Amino acid sequence: MADQNIEAIVQKIVGDVLAQMTAPPTSGGSAQPVPVLKEKPVNEKDVVRRVVIGSDHTTVDQKAAVKTYLQSLGYDVTDIGPFTAKEKVDYPDFAAAVARKVASGECDRGIMLDGAGIGSSMVCNKIRGIRAALCYSIKTVVNSREHNNANVLTLGGSLHSNSELCELSKVWLETRFEGGRHWPRINKMMALEREERGHGSK
């Protein structure tokens, strides 16, 4: 799919999501359905189907936009909240929940949004088996997957437009780990995790 077509799709879906968020109820009192793509492309670039997504209270709207976009592409998206921006929450609670669903194998990958993405990345990497990457561009998204085999993506919701967040998420989910020369480095990374946990138990 051409880059301009991807951007057009992203812009349309994000626009629909935002319109739905502000649209008045219908005469029957129920909210209007959110339009999605009639044809759902399938991720044929990497074996990913189940995605868990979370946020803090400041990025609830951005999370909703990314969630709807990914669902329109055919992903099975689990939203662990929060679902309203009216009440303040602590991002570590939601970041940990995202990471645990990935670590347990319940979901293939995780995406977590907060104001800058930094705190959530730190939290996710406290969970055993998680390699969370804070990304801010297509280049860093691709690098995090090809070189580091990241299984959780953290994003700064306030640093990007909704369409950018959608595109970053899409590319991240479709990028394969290259393996090869990167495997020894990943193994060393995970060995450090096991080593530090071993010291902590003494």
Concise account of the structure shown:
The protein is α/β, with parallel strands linked by helices. It contains 7 helices and 5 strands, in the order H-E-H-E-H-E-H-E-H-E-H-H.
Keywords, please?
Ribose 5-phosphate Isomerase B, Chain: A, 7 helices, five-stranded parallel β-sheet, 5 strands, 202 residues, alpha/beta, 46% helix
- Quote the distance from N terminus to C terminus: 54 Å
Total domains: 1
The second-level CATH architecture is: 3-Layer(aba) Sandwich
Helical content stands at 40-55%
- Largest β-sheet summary: 5 strands, parallel
Radius of gyration: 17 Å
Write the layout of secondary structure elements.
Elements: H1 3-22, E1 50-55, H2 60-72, E2 76-79, H3 91-103, E3 109-114, H4 118-124, E4 132-134, H5 138-146, E5 152-156, H6 162-174, H7 183-200
Parallel strand pairs: 1-2, 1-3, 3-5, 4-5
Helix pairs in contact: 1-2, 1-6, 2-6, 3-4, 5-6
Organism: Candidatus Moduliflexus flocculans
Protein name: Ribose 5-phosphate isomerase B, also acts on
GO biological process, one term: pentose-phosphate shunt, non-oxidative branch
Tell me about this structure:
Keywords: Isomerase. This is Ribose 5-phosphate isomerase B, also acts on. One of its GO terms (biological process) is D-allose catabolic process. The chain has 202 residues and is α/β, with parallel strands linked by helices. The chain has a single domain (46-200), classed as Ribose 5-phosphate Isomerase B, Chain: A (3-Layer(aba) Sandwich). It is built from 7 helices and 5 strands. It has helices at residues 3-22, 60-72, 91-103, 118-124, 138-146, 162-174, 183-200, and strands at residues 50-55, 76-79, 109-114, 132-134, 152-156. The protein has a 5-stranded parallel sheet, sandwiched between helices. Helix 1 packs across helix 2 and helix 5 (138-146) runs parallel beside helix 6 (162-174). The longest helix has 20 residues, at 3-22. It is globular. 37% of the residues are buried. Residues 20-41 have low confidence and may be disordered.
